[in-house]
Amino acid sequence: MHVGYMRKIVALWLMLALLIGTSSLENATANPSALYTNAKGSALIDVESGRLIYSSNGDTSMRIASLTKIMTAIVAIDNGKLTDMVKTSKRAVGKEGSSIYLQLGEEMSLLHMLYGLMLRSGNDAATAIAEHVGGSEEGFVHLMNEKAAFLGLTHTQFKNPHGLDEDGHYSSANDLAKLTAYALKNDVFAEIVSTRVKKVPNPHEKWEYSYTNKNKMLSMYEGADGVKTGYTKKSLRCLVSSATRDGQQLAAVTINDGDDWSDHRKMLDWGFKHYPLQEIAVKGQQIAGYPYTIGQSFKYPIADNETDGVQSRLVLHNVDSIRSTFGERGLLEWYMGDRLIGSVPVYDLASPKLEQSSKSPKALQSLAEFQKADHQGGSDIMMSSIVKVLDALFMH
């Protein structure tokens, strides 16, 4: 076959065993058993891959109460500056429902407001954050809906940043699962929602505010690390939880579920048992028979009855393409049957691209800002560290 033609398009199917062997897929359990919850809508997602591994009535739009604040938090983190001081308006102070009891004119860093938002579900904090980041509550809601569209959340629409019942304000279990998987990949968001108790500066008294997380899953379930509770008289009980075991993170969603704590333990157990995260490809690994190496690791949750259907296809770029100019030689695409489940770039052996950090400059900047904001307004960085150590001791 002509070399030029191969450069333009190569569709070479490789059996999985030729690239990575079969050992990495041998730990999956038997065919998944049936899963049942008491929820009106539910979903379970693998965070790293974004694969929905369970869904029941998952695309039905429903009222979601304070699960709304997952979007509020990630939009604020993506668009705001964590060290900014957020001033509490009259509109924020007067917001009904759950509150962190902000006073009119009170100022608090955006980061500490986010702790009040996610741990205590403060509707006053949600309003103050929205007004600060979006210029107005309405402006911030526009950003929320833009983010929903960007993430492909086709059964979601926001009318406010707090989740109080309002016609036209809704989402679905599947959409919330996808949103949560996106948000948990943000280190700042993940740190906030996994925190059990947070001390923040109090401008009115010598003692600090103490926010205890309402999410009981953090103490009820091994490996739990998030995310958010919710309740209104119309939505009833809503919950998004996440947990990490053996390097795999799952997120469970239930909407209108009277037995959500039990159902979430059951859902997470089921997911870890039947859909373990498998390492399909390893960064730096050479592709058998080719002078190329894999530029990014790839993992995917695979049930035992699915292993035989996983195949890969190497597609090389045209030598004159922009990607090829910047060192990327092609893509290694992974399929389960006819469905594309992921792809990774491939490079020449010993390419300098392999040494690049997986963290984006924006992510590193956000983490640095997080550290600065977390100590902002405190009496002493050392004292803040001591408080964190004591918190950790009492939480275990």
From TrEMBL:
Q: What is its EC number?
A: 3.4.16.4
Q: Does the keyword Chloroplast apply?
A: no
Is Electron transport one of the keywords?
A: no
Task: Locate the residues binding substrate.
Answer: K228
GO BP: cell wall organization; peptidoglycan biosynthetic process; proteolysis; regulation of cell shape
The active site annotation covers S66 (acyl-ester intermediate), K69 (proton acceptor), S121
EC class name: hydrolase
Q: Give the record's keywords alphabetically.
A: Carboxypeptidase, Cell shape, Cell wall biogenesis/degradation, Hydrolase, Peptidoglycan synthesis, Protease, Signal
| UniProt xrefs under InterPro entries | Beta-lactam/transpept-like, Peptidase_S11, Peptidase_S11_N
The family assignment reads: Belongs to the peptidase S11 family.
Q: What is this protein called?
A: D-alanyl-D-alanine carboxypeptidase
Look up and give the organism this protein is from.
Paenibacillus endophyticus
